[in-house]
Write a structure and sequence with these properties.
The chain is an alpha+beta fold. The protein has one domain: hypothetical protein PF0899 fold. The protein contains two helices and three strands; from the N terminus they run αβαββ.
Length: about 100
């Protein structure tokens, strides 16, 4: 668990909450049964403490409607910070 020096990582938490909001929108639009994975591109100059962000995102993704979705933070260039992908289970079999 990351050390926060006695305080919550508010910047990273607010970013993680926004990612979850976006993911919920995708899940609703796709009528997903559950979200199985979330990928976020994070640039070295994005102003994000990556381990704090990972901790916040993984904590939020434990609960429904995410139910423990896998978190993938993808290194990116510059100040990039964007939702890269959302993996869903839509209940349909894929062959």
């Amino acid at each position: 668990m990351p050390a926060f020096g006695g305080r919550l990582p508010m910047h990273e938490l607010s970013l993680a909450l926004e990612v979850c909001r976006l993911v919920e929108g995708v899940a609703d639009r796709e009528r997903a049964n559950r979200v199985t994975g979330v990928g976020v591109e994070v640039g070295a100059d994005a102003g994000v403490e990556v381990e704090n962000f990972r901790f916040c995102l993984e904590t939020l993704l434990r609960d429904p409607p995410f139910d423990g979705a896998r978190t993938d933070l993808v290194p990116a260039e510059g100040d990039t910070l964007r939702l890269a992908y959302v993996e869903i289970d839509d209940g349909r079999s894929h062959h």
